[in-house]
Amino acid sequence: MRFFFIGTGAAFTMADDNFQSNAILESEAGERLLIDCGTDARRALKAAGLGRGDVSAVYISHLHGDHVGGLEWLGFTTYFCPDTARLPLYIHEGLVDALWHNSLKAGMEVLDYGYGHLGDFFDVRPLPADGGFVFGGLRLGLVPLLHIHSGEAVMRSYGLMMEAPIGRVLFTSDCLHQPETLMPAYRAAHLIFHDCDTGPHCGGVHAHYRDLRTLPADVKAKMWLYHYPDGPLPDARADGFRGFVRPGQVFELGAVPEEGGLAGLAD
């Protein structure tokens, strides 16, 4: 099982060698789960030597454009390609209606046969907050987190805890610094991929490097940082982290027993 990012940048990245933070989980059999599908996804996939046909399923963590902006492209290329099966789309059950009505419907509803819906483009697999799914024989559980919290306004994002052969792997998705919530997951994880803003100000949307730097040394020692803006980066290794992930950097998660495979795409 392999895990890698096709882009590690923040939403507004313009770097020539980086894209928005979307990732791939790849099984030994070559099936690929696309984790988030942002506006840059088709170009990021191309830069990684991949295309629409190389994606076997999609997981969406939340509804910002750098995580769902590429779904129109992905859905249309599936719908208008003959003999192409709809991709399984895993998403928290509370986001399904908003994904269609607030993010995709205006551009995708009118089709060659009349009015369509999300199920015309994807095999939608809604998940409860305490649920999960299996991909390539590997179990992925949802990790509900705060992304934005301003007064009564709340936006959640749903990270993933992957039950990998090497040990648990935590992918936070976009989230605020919330060690009181995440510490049990930090402790349980063998490896951590964490949202990290390195801008001059803490913006109240992402965990900031200055805050993450205060985490216990044993937590930082298993933490890789991603979703950073363009420009110079701090010396993460000197501060006790594994480092900043680069696009295409491959992480081997170990071999899954042969009874896994794409047939395990179910809950």
Describe this structure in words.
The protein starts with a strand and ends in a 15-residue tail after the last strand. By secondary structure, it is α/β, with parallel strands linked by helices. It contains seven helices and 16 strands. The longest helix is centred in the middle third of the chain and has 13 residues. Helix 1 links the parallel strand 3 and strand 4. The C terminus is likely disordered. It has one domain: 4-Layer Sandwich (Metallo-beta-lactamase, Chain A). Strands 8-5-4-3-2-1-16 form a seven-stranded mixed β-sheet. GO terms for molecular function: 3'-tRNA processing endoribonuclease activity; metal ion binding. Pfam families: Anti-Pycsar_Apyc1. This is Metallo-beta-lactamase domain-containing protein.
Observed structural traits:
267 residues; alpha/beta; Metallo-beta-lactamase, Chain A; 7-stranded mixed beta sheet; globular
CATH topology: Metallo-beta-lactamase, Chain A
- Supply the CATH superfamily name: Ribonuclease Z/Hydroxyacylglutathione hydrolase-like
Our count of domains comes out at 1
Instruction: Please write the CATH class name.
Output: Alpha Beta
Main beta sheet: strand number and arrangement? Answer: 7 strands, mixed
Strand order in space, largest sheet: 8-5-4-3-2-1-16
Principal-axis shape: globular
pLDDT averaged over residues: 94
Q: Can you count the helices? A: 7
Approximately how much helix is present in the residues? Answer: 10-25%
CATH architecture: 4-Layer Sandwich
Radius of gyration: 18 Å
**In total, how many beta strands?**
16
Low-pLDDT parts are: 260-267
Distance between the termini: 19 Å
